[in-house]
Hints:
Strand content: 15-25%
CATH class: Alpha Beta
Number of helices: 7
Largest sheet: 9 strands, mixed
Number of domains: 1
Low-confidence stretches: none
Distance between the termini: 34 Å
Amino acid sequence: MTDKIKxxxxxxxxxxxxxxxxEPLERSYVKYWPNCPLKIYLGTNFLEPDLKTFQTxxxxxxxxxxxxxxxxxxxxxxxxxLLTFDDVFWASNIDNNKLVPLIxxxxxxxxxxxxxxxxxxxxxxxxxxxxxxxxxxxxxxSTALALFKKDVFxxxxxxxxxxxxxxxxxxxxxxxxxxxxxxREKILPYINLVVxxxxxxxxxxxxxxxxxxxxxxxxxxxxxxxxxxxxxxTLAYAVYRRIRDRFIF
Length: 249
């Protein structure tokens, strides 16, 4: 591990209402990313769970998602923050040999943003594995598995905004800034367990096959018809994205 990588932290966004996710999520990290070189913070409200892998940031009450993030960032010393969420479980082993060099490059070249979720992709080719996110790009500040330079992240946040507001309005606030990039491959393969506060049936099945117990999950299951509709939409969008990306590159 380089000295620079020590100045990067993971922030898992959560709240006390989703506390039943924390233990299975920790098991996912232990199983698929046991050699994670980054410090991992779990943002909560008032609860301080006894977890071995995550360091709790109990920030108290929040007036919005952006207010929550700002309070978390106030308690993080690292210069860069990799943002993820409490319902993002790992689908397979995380390869540090792919991840760490990209983070090192981002820090060395003082990038403001690097997203490891490859959708939507940028329209400007940067390298074999990265695209540049031009000013005006859709979801330029998407929060999905995104590495932010912390001071830039703070400057783009509006305390009144939801996460969805930030991804749209924050993207336009970022247009005067350079050095926004996105990976062209899934460096961090994941399973999204919860959609609109309901457990995705198919995602839960995948996690159970991995040996991740969800027995104590205190969340409502999605109706099977909803889960099937979501599965069809996801597959259709994946096909659309492949076709679209052929024209971009």
